[in-house]
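Annotators were shown the component list below and the corresponding predicted structure, then asked to write short factual statements about the assembly.
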Amino acid sequence: MITTNYIKNEYIRRMPSAFCPGCGDGQILNAIARAIDHLKIPRNEIAAVSGIGCSAWIPSPYLRVDSLHTTHGRPIAFATGLKVANPKLKVIVVSGDGDCTGIGGNHLLHAARSNVDITVIMVNNGVYAMTGGQVAPTTEHEYKTVTTPYGNPAFALNVSEVVAAAGASYVARWTTWHMNQLIRSIEKALTKKGFAFIEVLSQCPTYEGRILNMDHIEMLHWFRDKFKTDEKGVFRVGEFVDIEKPELTDELQKIIEKVKQ
Amino acid sequence: MKAAEIKIDKNLCKGCAICIDVCPKNTLERSDEVNEYALFYPRVRDLDSCIVCRLCELYCPDFAIEVVQK
Amino acid sequence: MIDPGEYFLEGDLAAAYGAIKAGCRFFAGYPITPASEITQAMAELLPRVGGKFLQMEDELASISAIIGASWAGLKSMTATSGPGFSLMQENIGYAAMTETPVVVINVQRAGPSIGQATRAAQGDVMQSRFGSHGDYENIVLSPNSVQEMFYFTVKAFNLSERYRGPVILLSDAEVGHMMERLKIPETVEIVNRKIAKTFEEATKYGDDLVPPMGRFGDGLELMVTGSTHRPDGTRDTGSPDVQSSLVTRLVEKINKNRMYIEEWEEMLTEDAEILIIAYGATSRPAKGAVIKAREKGIKAGFLRPKVLWPAPERRMKELAHVKKVILPEMSLRGYSMEIEKMFPGKFIHYPKVTGTVHTVSEIFKKIEEVNS
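Structure shown to annotators:
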């Protein structure tokens, strides 16, 4: 029986966490641990890589696996090196929206393009939360953040569409309300070969809450009521891409088999 | 299914009340006691109403609540 | 796979051969003049020995990927020049902070900025030691021939494995692109990192201040982070003791062991009155100038640091009695602060920033001038 204490004792370290009360990061940690448990993946076969931001703490230190906490924006590049060096590892990258699409945007694009077999879980709260609520590439137009006090002059990136266009094998988008769907997507991403990208809209009561003028319960209700699989545009959730295509570590192995002396 | 007990870890709970909100049977409510972080943790309003769906466990961000089945 | 024997090839290629011979099995890089040949050679050689090569989207991705691969247990390397070396600084600091063995080759070109892509310079000497923010120590090697491009790359791997950190092979466009004879021996000395078999092992170190290194996939549940951390990897940025002991150890790790790391070449120093210190491409004409000076009866001596950082300070202190020290180099700053520190009041800087190497007669004329 999958209960709280079973998951906590098997997969979690150092509770209570540093996350704010009501933050979605703890829920995503729970989802990742449950997905790993459902698949019965031996813990020594998993490596977690994270960048900089609140979401980086999800695996480092809270998930009991080998974890690599890297510099801002680079976890996908570190993860590519780790995976290519040891293809037996299941590599999970947990990265915030700023870390992943701002400073790390280039690496996201190219990892999707080369279809390297890693799973990227992008925790999207529409803001740079760790540093105090600055505007992010995923902040909607006209939203007031601490660096757009008169309203955001720019526009939000539709990350899932960009990653799908770049060549990912699996792209899904959920929210922290859609816990079961999220767990199932993580399971699929870990089992599937190729670049898997899961965007999770997650409530940040401390900064996103201030921008939207909602508390975390209201944000969860907003996720529940507004974000649906048959919606269009920014409110759409679901699995967007689920295909089979050649993958980078396989292709590298083919080359080695052909030329190795 | 019935619950024998609903355990709430006062040291881990941050009083976010997501469990109270997500419970389909209104089994939980906010207590008027605080833990050492000065946060109001939940308490069982009506143990008999619990159907052991474990949605509270699924949604808790802090691994602080567990339902013990009868 | 790299058969022993004699070859005639360019410095960049010799470095790639050295890497393969040293056991490098992962390379991630990005094209940049004058280091692209190293990247191209690794692309051809690595798969043939079962290694993995990736051309990444930029230098930031390259240095990141090789650190990731090192934690999977592979000896990994990248190669670049000034503009790329600048981009890599953040993660070179990350490799130092997390004690990750990696080799970074910087084939220096004239800067600043885009500069002269195809011309040599020695302007990155300070950057190779202090390029990243905060306190840490790098080991920096300076080859002056094709043979040394091979041997010093092997040495760079050995030092990075032994002391668990980034080692910079600081070459330049002249040495990287010159073609000379390379002799590859049957075997070379290889040093491998001490692998920690348990989580506990990875948290302890002996007198050498180097803990054994865990490997991802062995089930140790390692915590690696660039944040200030306790010996077990737990992030702890609030404790004064944790920061102090960590940073002190990272610096002491190299300083305390410097007698095993420092390496230099010297000639005619026993009775030298004018000491010529030179490294890299400049050391070749400098040596010739010293021989010429001796022929003219000038008591010149020659000192060539093979390891630039840590500098051969103990030896330089022993030579403090010389009357004058001349440092010819292709930079207005380069190694000058270090040499001036070691020989106060006697130091003469002889920079040349044309993008071309000093000639023997140029350095000889300088020696004559100083001697008079």
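Statements collected:
1. Chains C and B do not touch (no CB pair under 8 Å).
2. The domain at 265-371 of chain C is CATH 3.40.50.920 (Rossmann fold).
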